[in-house]
Amino acid sequence: MSESSFTAPEEPQPASPTDGSLRHTRAKGEPRFPDGPKADPAGSHFERRIRSFQPRRSRVTAGQADALQRLWPKWGLDIDGQRTIDLAELFGSDLPVVLEIGFGMGEATAQMAAEDPETGILAVDVHTPGQGNLLNLADRNGLSNIRVGNGDAIILLREMLQPESLSGLRVYFPDPWPKKRHRKRRLIQPEFLSLVATRLKPGALVHCATDWEPYAEQMLEVLSAHPDFENTQPDGGYAPRPDFRPLTRFEGQGLDKGHVVNDLLFRRVQHLVDHPDQHQQPDQKPEQQSVDG
Predict the structure, then answer these.
(1) Are 149 and 166 in contact (CB under 8 A)?
(2) What's the burial of 219, exposed, middle or buried (CB within 10 Å: 0-12/13-18/19+)?
(3) Helix extents (H) in 61-202
(4) Does the annotation flag 35 for ligand binding?
(5) 192 marked among binding-site residues
(6) Which of 66, 175, 256, 277 is the catalytic position?
(7) Least confident of 23-32, 103-112, 229-238, 256-265
(8) CA–CA distance, 227 with 224 (Å, rounded to integer)
(9) Considering only Cβ atoms within 10 Å of each terminal Cβ, which end of the chain, N or C, has fewer?
């Protein structure tokens, strides 16, 4: 299927709250989507830490809002850190499940789900319009192998997923945090990989892609140095873009401008010890997040 198959059509926006649209004035404390994702699912249950993501506020279309209201109870997951989830129960089947962290508006995720219906995709983001758009695409295209997670993927990995429950991890075009003082916010760090290793099955693939070359170099360095992962490339370098990762519209525009996109494909090695939680995991000690990072 082409990428355009998974691009939601533009929707006319209501001119005013009196035209029968979903927009209305909410009372103080009233949730934005009563049956949809929570604004802060983990609340104050967990310590503050240096986050690798920055929530973006943007307009939610009527179609996205409708999908959030209708489909969140069926296909949505608020990452509250208060329970361990059974992926077979979540997906209603024993599909192998890959975790995708950060999916934008969801077109590439929907295309991958359509082309590989025998794999479940647990797609996590904090961008409400993207969550609604992906749910809309899944519904419109009959994609029952997608679940949408709302919240912090670190809390999901650390608190809610069972050891060796995932068949893969996908991190496509994460925030590069280009300023030197912000590099500690980048997701792909040794401590993060140690946590990920405990949740991946032996042989599972970690697939990263970025168009920011300094970040690609850091990814390659930390993945190559980590004892629980091995590069799938014999030369120890970057991988060609695999067929299962769609070439997105925005990536194509970047390539036309001469941007370099690097893919990294690493495998979780077999020798992980029998007690996977012995690995150091991030956030075991509270860390105060400064305003400027």
Answers:
(1) no
(2) buried
(3) 62-75, 87-91, 107-115, 128-140, 153-155, 190-199
(4) no
(5) no
(6) 175
(7) 23-32
(8) 8
(9) N
Distance CA 91, CA 55 (A): 27
* Residue 249, marked binder: yes
Instruction: Report residue 185's pLDDT band, with 50, 70 and 90 as the boundaries.
Output: confident
| Dist. CA 183–CA 164, nearest whole Å | 29
Is 107 annotated for ligand binding?
no
Which residues does 204 contact at the CB level (< 8 Å), separation at least 6?
166, 167, 168, 169, 267, 268
The pTM of this model reads 0.79
Output the CA–CA distances (angstroms, integers) from residue 231 to 63, 141, 187, 195, in the order listed.
42, 35, 19, 18
User: What are 35-64's pLDDT values in tens digits?
Assistant: 677 777 766 565 555 554 555 556 899 999
Could you confirm whether 228 is annotated as catalytic? no
Integer CA distances (angstroms), 50 to 154, 181, 223, 281, in order: 11, 12, 21, 14
For residue range 127-157, what is the model confidence (pLDDT) as tens digits?
999 999 999 999 999 999 999 999 999 999 9
CA 55 centroid distance within chain:
13
| Extended strands (E) in 114-261 | 120-125, 146-150, 166-172, 200-210, 229-231
Degrees, nearest 5: CA angle 123-159-47: 105
28 is in an annotated binding site: no
What is the Cα–Cα distance from 203 to 267, expressed in whole angstroms?
A: 6
152 is in an annotated binding site: yes
Q: How far is CA 89 from CA 13, 74, 85, 155, 206, in A?
A: 37, 12, 8, 19, 24
- pLDDT number for residue 252: 85
With vertex at residue 240, the alpha carbon angle to CA 235 and CA 241, rounded to the nearest 5 degrees, is 150
Give helix then strand counts, H and E, for the chain: 8, 8
Tracing tokens 């799938």 back to the chain, one arrives at 232
Element (H, E) at 249: helix 249-256
Q: Is 235 annotated as a binding residue?
A: no
